[in-house]
Amino acid sequence: MLDLSATELISRLLTLVIALTLHEYAHARAAAFFGDDTPRLAGRLTLDPLRHLDPLGSLMLVVAGYGWARPVPINPAVLRQRSRAAVMLVSLAGPFSNLLLALLASLPYHLLRASAGASNGALNFLNQFLISFVVLNVTLCVFNLLPVAPLDGEKVLEYLLPEPARKVLYAVRPYGMFILLALVFVLPMLGVDAFGALVRAPVLAISRFLLGL
After folding, report:
1. pLDDT, position 38
2. Is 163 a catalytic residue?
3. How far apart are CA 127 and CA 109, in angstroms?
4. Which is catalytic among the residues 24, 154, 158, 163?
5. CA 58 to CA 20: how far, in whole Å?
6. Can you tell me whether residue 35 is helix, strand or coil?
7. Cα–Cα distance, 84 to 89 (Å, whole number)
8. How confident is the model over 91-119, as pLDDT tens digits?
9. Which of 26, 67, 133, 185 is 20 to 30 A from 17 in CA distance terms?
10. What is the SS3 assignment for 15?
């Protein structure tokens, strides 16, 4: 996991700055669209990476290939005044931004593939960077859609569940980080690759589709 090539390390660092920043900015912009001024007052309605990056989440992205940024503060009461679905849509904005970035990066990748015989150091690096950028952004999208707090998918699940089932979700919410740690670290050590089924498998399928592999 730590044995990274120079290309992969640079790719992850660039993705860290671009993808995580735009992920959180998308949350802030979506909240502002629904009339919530909380992100702006917190200084998060900006593309400045320093306002968004989380040290541990950034390290995880570089080391493991998935990670997170500092959550954008929102006011659910204000959002729900505009729409019952507003909190869910604000939550979806972050993963959607990563999927959009992956789609956009796949376009120049296909152009490079179509250029017959284009092979030199710079182009090879760009080709590998685009592949890594696509895969990492798809990973961020899928990972953040896991229905476990504090990830975005938990807010999506909250919206979709009927009221009685939400009580179970609220009871589990305080233990979300422990559940994530179990999925990522504990279960694999016990021979149960739930994280692979929930994240790696869909990431591989989506990335292959976007890259035409």
Report:
1. 97
2. no
3. 6
4. 24
5. 8
6. coil
7. 10
8. 999 999 999 999 999 999 999 887 755 56
9. 185
10. helix
